Amino acid sequence: MPRVPAFSGITSLLHDYARRLDAGDFGGVADLLARAEILVSGTEIGSGRGLVEEFLRSAVIIHADGTPRTRHVIAQPAIDVADSSRATVRSQYTVLQASPVGAHVVMVGHHHDVMTVENGAWRFASRDYGHITYVGDTSRHLRAPQKPQ
């Protein structure tokens, strides 16, 4: 698969993930990661649609408008296409959240993903959530707030 279609398909998948998460569509996020291994700091915690949806529902606060009131900004995707059907991807993210006093940065980090082609489309084969470099006030975002760094 040529580099341009791979880049386009992979970045589209990254942004689709962020849009669904910001909409509070945990079922839609789980669909994207249904066959992916889920890792935290290199340790696999499981796989499957049910695990992903439960992981999000147990961790992320949904507000009265049905969303987490966040905006995940995905940036600097570094895509290494191994062959026509496999790629490793590192992307930066910044999570912004609306609050009564304005928007603020909740978290910054990067994801490590492995993506593969299935039926002509890129999909997640694994995602590592453990690379967090900054945590702000998560009291309105996560059920178990993290200590600000």
TrEMBL record:
The family database entries (InterPro entries) matched by this protein are listed as: NTF2-like_dom_sf, SnoaL-like
Residues spanning the signal sequence = none
Q: Do you know which Gene3D superfamilies this protein is assigned to? A: 3.10.450.50
Where the record annotates domain SnoaL-like, the positions are: 9-128
Q: What is this protein called?
A: SnoaL-like domain-containing protein
Q: Which organism is it from?
A: Williamsia serinedens
